[in-house]
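DOMAIN: structural biology
WANTED: fold as tokens
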Amino acid sequence: MGWLWGSDNSSNGQEQLDPSLRDFLRKEAPTGPKPSLPSAPKENPAATQTPAQSRTPTDADKPYVPPQSQFQDGRYADLWKNYTPQDIINDRGKSEQDRLRDLVDAYNDRKASVGRIAMENCALEYMEQFECFRHPATWWSAGTMCIAESRKFNRCYDIQSKFLKALGYMTMDARSPDESERIQMHADKLYQQMLQQEAEMDKAKAEGRPVPKFESVLSKRNVAQALSGLASASPAPTAGAAKPSILDDAEVWSEIKPETRKKYEKKLESLSPEEREIEKMAVVGELRAQTGMVKQMEETFVEERIARMKRIQAGQATFGDTIKQWWGWG
């Protein structure tokens, strides 16, 4: 067993092996030329550049990777270069009627979602009203059918809905679910701020002190503070009015027909200054959403007319294209 540990008398230990084993290893040893080792890697030219000559990669040098990829550092960019989002693929096969129907459905869904979101923000007030109906805490609540709790919930629901409209929740601008959730939180934040201001005013009246004056909850400064955590926040009163084509408040208000405007003005005169400002901003937010939907419908008509003219010029007009041409639709 001494050959396992080597010996100082032999440099390679072969003399300590058994003769038969030594002969076997010599016969089985590979013959022929020895494989050459890989050459040393060439020196990287970029490593020899001076700091003045070196250049850091910019965003333009990086390959484009769509947001659907989990690797935004450029990995697998060659696999994503021909990628087309599924919504664009689905939109290519839609007719004019399908696109118009999608616009109307999207607007109606946004309009209905205002009520759902306001209900979520007023969940505590609703539960308080519900528990009062089940188990009234006092005989007064039972005798009045929980009118105090019902008024509290109805006011919360109404004002939260108006705040959502004023903050641009109904606009047709594309936004992520996170941005919609942030607008929802901002509406609730402004409502809690309004309740705090009202509590301070009532306390001042009860103590006989001068009633403090506060800035409107929907002022540009307050809305900007409420939207401070939103990436696309701006001092404008709406969170979704980031496009330059969107009209401002005065222009939107001027788009109302004179008869309808008189009805709005008559309704606003019966409200307090605070309620008047909230109602006006809610109306402006709703009108802005309607204006955005009408503009997208006009763009759809223009795109469809251009596509129809191209089909007619190429001799590929459909029966519907011929009928529309007879009717003077271009």
